[in-house]
Amino acid sequence: MTAVRYIVIDDARVSWHHAVLHAEAGHWTIEDEDSKNGTYADRCRVRTRGVGPGSVIRFGNPASGPRRSCRP
Question: From which residue to which does the signal peptide run (predicted)?
Answer without folding.
Answer: none
